[in-house]
Amino acid sequence: MNNESQRLAHQTMAFVLAGGRGSRLYELTDRRAKPAMYFGGKSRIIDFPLSNAVNSGIRRIGVATQYKAHSLIRHLQRGWSFFRAERNESLDILPASQQMNDENWYKGTADAVAQNRDIIEGYAPKYIVILAGDHIYKQDYSLMIKHHVDSGADVTVGCIEVPRMEASAFGVMAVDTEDRILEFVEKPKDPPAMPNDPDHALASMGIYVFETEYLFRIMDECAADPDYGHDFGGDVIPRIVKNGLAVAHPFSRSCVRTDNEDGSYWRDVGTVDAFWQANIDLTDFDPDLDLYDTEWPIWTYSELTPPAKFIHNEEGRRGHAVSSMVSGGCIISGSQLDRCFLFTGVRTHSYSELKGVVAMPYVEINRKARLTNVVIDRGVTIPTGLVVGEDPELDAKRFRRTDNGICLITQPMIDKLDL
């Protein structure tokens, strides 16, 4: 980070949109918002954009919460309470229902900012970066802010390159060779291709940089439109594309990588399959996301736990793990783990066999269980002898089984079993 980028970051406030449920995660978000989902052993998804902001030099942060916010707010209070007002630092938690009006819930992404306008203006940041709170990636926002200033843009939109026909799930940009956005369309059936690359499209990451004064001015203009949908992607950005200067910022220009990382890592873990795959990928010999990067740490709430323990060394009852990650507080008692990811405090008992298991905190797996390709919600107790992953029809009757064969297991599902 050079001095100019650092100076710009200090003039910037990050506003994180963290109110979404993530309905495609089904029961995993029955009790928590998607940004509060566990990831990578000890982190939550929200920790990635927040860590990016802090590591980029941004010290003013607001987090807008809405759906099932308690778990998220508790995590922020425990893990992100190190900001000091006397150093001009702040982290504001902004629940939707705090404003006194007839409709307390945020009507859309832009409305979340509008309802907190007085708080933002109280800090008087020159720039504001709007962030989605539910993606996994490492990015130096200061480089994107500098690009915004150098280009003279009214808005700069973070974007990733995706195969063109996969882009229909995103907001997609048509750009010219100078990165100017010519068109911004939400979830198009026929996404526009990148210049000189007909097979790829530029998809929005849900990251926007504005001058704060300009943002509120353009939002006031949008609010006068009777068809205003209170959304950045659906309303604010298209208006700027039409009437102002909108510039695309490819993620590759500010992605943070170590020598062990190839390409630009960005994941939306918004489905059970994607969540399972992203966690299991971390067990690879050379994973695409380097969690051991001390130069760009992922800050989080770290529970005080003892180291993981492996016990018993008898034939058929040996506590061991292969190509797996095991978090603090875990006890692997006479169990076999193959390509598994165990979060904090998981206990596995003798003769159990686990393959492709992603177990969230404080799961207990009793004796002789055989589990293959499963995601287990926090605090679930797996009964003695339970077998999952070997009979697709039976699995689909008892648990939520995806088309790719990943089974999601929650405690209510276990409680309904006739064992």
TrEMBL record:
Keywords: ATP-binding, Carbohydrate metabolism, Glycogen biosynthesis, Glycogen metabolism, Nucleotide-binding, Nucleotidyltransferase, Transferase. Homotetramer. It comes from the Bacteria. Pfam families: Hexapep_GlmU (PF24894), NTP_transferase (PF00483). Alpha-D-glucose 1-phosphate binds at residues 106, 171, 186-187, 204. It is an enzyme of class 2 (transferase). The keyword Nucleotidyltransferase applies. It catalyses: alpha-D-glucose 1-phosphate + ATP + H(+) = ADP-alpha-D-glucose + diphosphate. HAMAP family: GlgC. Involved in the biosynthesis of ADP-glucose, a building block required for the elongation reactions to produce glycogen. Catalyzes the reaction between ATP and alpha-D-glucose 1-phosphate (G1P) to produce pyrophosphate and ADP-Glc. Signal peptide: none annotated. One of its GO terms (molecular function) is glucose-1-phosphate adenylyltransferase activity. Its EC number is 2.7.7.27. The keyword Lipoprotein does not apply. CDD domains: ADP_Glucose_PP, LbH_G1P_AT_C. Belongs to the bacterial/plant glucose-1-phosphate adenylyltransferase family. The record marks 66, 105 as: Could play a key role in the communication between the regulatory and the substrate sites. GO terms for biological process: glycogen biosynthetic process. Residues 306-409 form the Glucose-1-phosphate adenylyltransferase/Bifunctional protein GlmU-like C-terminal hexapeptide domain. This is Glucose-1-phosphate adenylyltransferase. Pathway: Glycan biosynthesis; glycogen biosynthesis. Residues 14-283 form the Nucleotidyl transferase domain. InterPro entries: ADP-Glc_PPase (IPR011831), ADP_Glu_pyroP_CS (IPR005836), GlgC_bac (IPR023049), GlmU/GlgC-like_hexapep (IPR056818), NTP_transferase_dom (IPR005835), Nucleotide-diphossugar_trans (IPR029044), Trimer_LpxA-like_sf (IPR011004).
